[in-house]
Structures are given as structure tokens and as C-alpha cells.
Amino acid sequence: MIQSFKDLKVYQESYELALIVNKAILRLPSSERFDLVDQMRRASKSIPANIAEGYAKRLFEKEFKKYLFSSIGSCNEMVVHISFAKDLGFWKPEFCEDLLKRYDVVGKQLTRLLQNWKSYPTSKI
Prior knowledge:
This protein is mainly alpha-helical. Helix content is 72%, strand content 0%. It has a single domain (9-18, 32-117), classed as Up-down Bundle (de novo design (two linked rop proteins)). The chain has helices at residues 9-24, 33-56, 61-87, 93-115.
């Protein structure tokens, strides 16, 4: 039974990914401090934050879905930023591929949650 947004697997995974990304961006070149670093910090943290905020408004379909769409958008944004980090040679390809796969799963989980929002309080997503 879901009693809090913290019980959602999609929240847990997106939070863990945000921690991993925020530690890894310390290895990015200082020239990326105001570009890729800031964008990754913001987008990675936005996913679990929007899930949490949406949970508080889950009884209102339009509001709930708005926050899930924001989470999906930030998830997609992370895919782009990680691809840049990989293709620019800032991070190892294997590390990036793992992150990309995990963000793909999070995106799919968020989409399922959006589609099944009525069963959200008892969902095991």
C-alpha cells in the first residue's frame, strides 16, 4: 500500500539517480559549471521533486498530471544532458549508458503512472 510518495518505486529510483548525477557532475570540467552542471542539477532534482509535489495534489487530476508531465519532461532532459556528457567525452560511455537505461525506465514508469493515475494511491509503480 502506498502511504507516501516515498513508497513509489519511481520516486525512489529518480531520487537515487539524482544523487548519482549530482556526485558525478563534480567531475565535469569547470567550463561547464554554468551550463551542463546547472542544467543537470536542476533537471535531475526536478523529477523526484515533482513526483512529491504531485502526490500532494493527487486528488485533483489536472494538477496531478501537470506535475507528472513536468517529471517526464525533466527525465527527457536528463537523457539529452547525459548524451552530451558522453559524446563530449566528459563521462565514460559505460556510466552514461547505465544512466540512460535507468532514466528510460523512470520515464516509462512515469508514463504508466500518468495513464493509471486513478489507481495511484494503491499503485506499486
